[in-house]
């Protein structure tokens, strides 16, 4: 099975797959990482910000909405970095996004417990990192995925 594709034996093949987006922000070699709230799926896990695509939304619209909902960030969408299917059967699109550096994230406690700026190496050693994030970081280290510097 190709890297980034995972098999989910629990998925109901009669329903369309859930779709989601991830927003990747890198500034000065550090990535914006959140720790999920206790109130959401995968509570207290670390990951990049993101979430479900709502009906009628494009991937780009969804990533803009998710960064606003989770961190009150008004971002600009850059390039699509990667695509995978998670072990939970979520069809996930990874987008690079840019923020105005003067704008500090403000967490939405119902969705986000805390946020951090981490290097890829610091992220890779987190015990509670979501599995698809490890795959992304592995591809980033192999330079199969490249992240542009902020404009």
Automatic annotation (TrEMBL):
This protein's UniProt keywords: DNA damage, DNA repair, DNA replication, Hydrolase, Magnesium, Metal-binding, Mutator protein
Top EC class, one word: hydrolase
Organism annotation: Pirellula staleyi (strain ATCC 27377 / DSM 6068 / ICPB 4128) (Pirella staleyi)
EC number annotated for this UniProt entry: 3.6.1.55
Cofactor(s) it depends on: Mg(2+)
Domain of life where this protein originates: Bacteria
GO molecular function: 8-oxo-7,8-dihydrodeoxyguanosine triphosphate pyrophosphatase activity; 8-oxo-7,8-dihydroguanosine triphosphate pyrophosphatase activity; 8-oxo-dGDP phosphatase activity; 8-oxo-GDP phosphatase activity; metal ion binding
Official protein name in the record: 8-oxo-dGTP diphosphatase
Protein family (similarity comment): Belongs to the Nudix hydrolase family.
Classification via Gene3D superfamilies: Nucleoside Triphosphate Pyrophosphohydrolase
Pfam families: NUDIX (PF00293)
Limits of the Nudix hydrolase domain: 16-144
GO biological process: DNA repair; DNA replication
Catalysed reactions, as listed in the record: 8-oxo-dGTP + H2O = 8-oxo-dGMP + diphosphate + H(+); 8-oxo-GTP + H2O = 8-oxo-GMP + diphosphate + H(+)
Membrane-spanning residues: none
């Amino acid at each position: 099975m190709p890297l980034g594709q995972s098999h989910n034996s629990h998925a109901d093949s009669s329903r369309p797959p859930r779709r989601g987006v991830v927003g990747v922000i890198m500034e000065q070699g550090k990535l914006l990482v959140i720790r999920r709230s206790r109130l959401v799926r995968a509570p207290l896990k670390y990951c990049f910000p993101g979430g479900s695509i709502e009906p009628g939304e494009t991937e780009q619209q969804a990533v803009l909405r998710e960064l606003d909902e989770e961190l009150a960030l008004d971002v600009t969408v850059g390039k699509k970095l990667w695509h995978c299917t998670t072990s939970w059967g979520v069809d996930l699109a990874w987008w690079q996004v840019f923020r105005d550096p003067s704008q500090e994230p403000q967490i939405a406690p119902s969705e986000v417990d805390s946020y951090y700026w981490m290097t890829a190496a610091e992220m890779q050693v987190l015990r509670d990192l979501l599995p698809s994030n490890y795959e992304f970081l592995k591809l980033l280290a192999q330079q199969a995925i490249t992240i542009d510097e902020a404009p």
